[in-house]
Design a protein that fits this description.
Length: about 300
């Protein structure tokens, strides 16, 4: 899934999904997954693990539109009522991506499969173009509350691609969730100031406009004020105290500069983090290398979930 600069921070346009809400009832010993939108889809991973994909209302329809919805990927083994707790991956997509499809596409799908094979439940809120703002953080909170009402949760890890990397970094310093054990940020957009000064084509113009709109800003100065409490790079290192992060980036990424985003953020948090790892990818933005090396990712998540400090 090699992407050109025009695919900066995203993979695909949002798809319109039916708003019909249903609730599926399982048979004896099968856990109910409430407030479904449409019918679940059967997923079989490369490791031959059977799983279900659900589109759900995360607060029983109280929040309208995509803001109140998320996509779940659940191994069939976790649908048993005998399962008391599950490890959760809270995944955040890139700008222009769709929560319903981004993990099913070329480069990202092996990562999805590896997580399901390892026994993780994946939940991906519809972030649209929230860029980590208060609305975006509330979408994470609603999705986590939903999961906690259906399963017990043994721990949550964050996964963010591109814009989603920034969303996840905001969740780290804002302490959006109380049980986050670690975060995987791949090709992350962390230096928001680099977006708007480099507008040079239609896509980056639209991305910059969306970033400003997310923070109700009409220009750079207003944006700096309105985003001050959220911008991942403008927080004190102490805001990241105790975090665990695996950060993957490529020196060949011309969409999001490795030095001013991933590597600079690692330098910012290094002294305060419990662990922070620099994982090198290759190729342009969103290439297979950004989602590959799943052994490294699973090992990091497993260790983070198991950590007690």
């Amino acid at each position: 899934m090699s992407l050109s600069r025009r695919h900066f921070m995203g993979l695909s346009a949002l798809l319109a999904l039916s708003p019909v809400v249903t609730t599926a009832c399982g048979g004896p010993g099968v856990r109910d997954v409430p407030d479904q939108v449409g019918e679940p889809t059967v997923v079989t991973t490369r490791g031959k693990v059977a799983a279900q994909k659900y589109d759900v209302r995360t607060d029983a329809g109280v929040t309208p539109g995509l803001a109140g919805r998320a996509v779940l990927y659940v191994p069939d083994s976790l649908l048993s009522t005998d399962v008391r707790s599950v490890p959760v991956v809270m995944a955040a997509h890139g700008y222009g991506d769709d929560a319903a499809t981004w993990l099913d596409q070329g480069a990202a799908s092996p990562m999805r499969d590896a997580l399901l094979d390892a026994g993780y439940l994946i939940v991906s809120p519809y972030h649209e173009a929230s860029f980590g703002n208060a609305d975006g953080q509330s979408r994470i909170q609603r999705a986590r509350t939903y999961i906690g009402n259906v399963w017990g949760v043994s721990g949550t890890v964050l996964l963010g691609f591109s814009m989603g990397g920034g969303i996840s970094a905001v969740a780290l310093h804002q302490k959006t969730l109380s049980d986050v054990r670690g975060a995987f940020l791949t090709a992350p957009l962390l230096d928001w100031s680099e977006v708007y000064p480099t507008i040079h084509d239609d896509f980056t113009f639209r991305a910059s406009a969306a970033l400003f709109a997310a923070y109700d800003a009409s220009g750079p100065e207003e944006f700096r004020v309105n985003s001050a409490a959220y911008d991942p790079m403008r927080q004190p290192p102490s805001a990241y105290a105790g975090i665990r992060a695996l950060v993957r980036s490529s020196p060949e990424d011309t969409a999001i500069d490795q030095n001013t985003n991933a590597l600079r953020w690692i330098d910012l948090v290094r002294d305060q983090a419990a662990q922070v790892f620099d994982s090198q990818a290759t190729g342009e933005h969103g290439t297979e290398s950004h989602f590959g090396n799943t052994e490294e990712l699973i090992a990091f998540f497993d260790q983070a979930i198991a950590a007690t400090d």
